[in-house]
Amino acid sequence: MNRVLTVARLQFVAWPLVFGWPWGILALSFLVNLALFGSIGDVDPAPVTGGLSSIYIVMLVACVTTITQDFPFIIGLGVSRRSFYLGNLLQFGAQAVAYAAVLYLLAVVEEATGGWGIELTFFGLPLLLVDNPVLRYLAFAIPFLLLGLLGIAIALVFKRWGVNGMLTLSAAAIVGFGGLGVLATWRGWWPAIGGWFADQSGGALLVGYPALLAVPLAAVSYLIIRRAAP
Amino acid sequence: MSPVVTVTDLTKRYRGVTALDRVSFSLTENRIYGLLGRNGAGKTTLMQILTAQNFATSGEVTVFGEQPYENERVLSRTSFIKESQTYPSMGVHHVLRAASLVHPGWDDEFAQQLTDDFRLPLRRNVRKLSRGMLSSLGIIIGLASRAPLTFFDEPYLGLDAVARQIFYDRLLADYTEHPRTVVLSTHLIDEVSELIEHVLLIDAGRLLLDAEAETLRGQVLTVSGPTAAVDEFTRTGAELHRTRLGGTARATVRGDFGPADHDRARTLGLMLEASSLQDTVVRLTTARTGSAPAGAEATSKEKFR
């Protein structure tokens, strides 16, 4: 456990970079949107930007680089794969929890200020979750975890099996999703699928299913890293 | 004294290549080992397996009496500095801070002093360091971590002669003050021959030699003089290498030579000198594979017992 904490601490040694990238890019995206919609004036309907996704994408990229760069470095220093993996999850989880709280607060401020004075929805979530504060918080936090674990899992496939592993994974994904698409078209399932998604609550789509997907991803990544060479 | 490392019948096969072939040896506490061998001999693979960064195909490895794989008790007491080490994009001072967190025996003051010795810019991003600076960074981590078992895998790439000498000096001084087991893998054998207490020589995945440096020094001799006399003398040992020039010959022989042998050489009218460690390693390696380059003016003949 001690070594797990060491790894988590170690990944914050260059903290200006760790925090600077995601928040810097989000701030930039926000300011550009603010300037853009502020200068346009009244827009109907009120603008909803996708700018919030930038921080999620930066965090996904950060997770990929923890495997491609931090993994060889930290294992090279003399840490077990288990400690590295758990420590990495801990530091990423801590960021997800903290970042989601900040985003939640910014969304509240956004509402209180009437969309920064220009009815701009930047931090507000696309699906309506305002009713339940816990669910609303989780809707900010859980997607971080899902995307982060996805980045870790894909980077680990590359780390362990190289380019051939990535090609196999891509081929499997194309065949798998493509096959399902063909099947759905052939059997005329698309309306039913669309209806199923429409029936799901925002909570299920942003919290429930991502959480359900994140758990097996975390387990698979652990099995891959156990036999990966740095 | 219990061994720090025990390796039994260690074999590592990659697709079609045997990197290590039933290697067995042990390392005792608080000594400096020279792990020598040509490029691709299996040195790095061996050290990677000992530090659980790579996996053995078969055989047993114990470090501090335990399996090293996923074992924090072992890993926290080991430091493995390799030439191919990569670093994330961060400042040199971040890398040193990270290393200090991982190694319980880390000495910050020593690291600071070494940074000054090597003139390493602390604030610079590691990605912007020259090859030599990157090597000094590895050396600083390896020395300041004061790990009871420290591996240096060709740590000097791109380092100038002055910096290499600083490395040898600091290593020896710190080793004297804080004894630990050091494994030094290097091609610059002559430079470290004074440092090395025990020699492990591997070639093509096989352990060729596992001997005390001191013992080895008297075991391998170069004898030169009239061909007939050289023939006479080399009968008592294993001839590793010979060059001929006219009626004289110069041969490298390995055997248990004592004062009597030195007297015998003198009466035969032969020149006898101890081979340097580098010569010994070259002769032993080429005697086995028979791939010594033959000089234009000399013919070579190698045999091995």
Features:
heterodimer; A: 230 residues; mainly alpha; 8 helices; B: 305 residues; alpha/beta; Rossmann fold; Alpha-Beta Plaits; six-stranded mixed β-sheet; four-stranded antiparallel β-sheet; 11 helices; globular; transmembrane (chain A); membrane (chain A)
Q: Would you kindly provide a written description of the structure presented here, covering whatever features stand out?
A:
- The complex is a heterodimer of chains A (230) and B (305).
- Chain A has eight helices and no strands.
- Chain A is mostly helical.
- The model of chain A has no long low-confidence stretch (mean pLDDT 92).
- With 305 residues, chain B is α/β, with parallel strands linked by helices.
- Chain B has two domains: 202 residues, P-loop containing nucleotide triphosphate hydrolases (Rossmann fold); 67 residues, Alpha-Beta Plaits, CATH 3.30.70.
- Helices cover 34% and strands 29% of the residues of chain B.
- In chain B, strands 5-6-7-3-8-9 form a six-stranded mixed sheet, sandwiched between helices. A four-stranded antiparallel sheet of chain B has the order 11-12-10-13, with helices on both faces.
- The chains are: A mainly alpha (230), B alpha/beta (305).
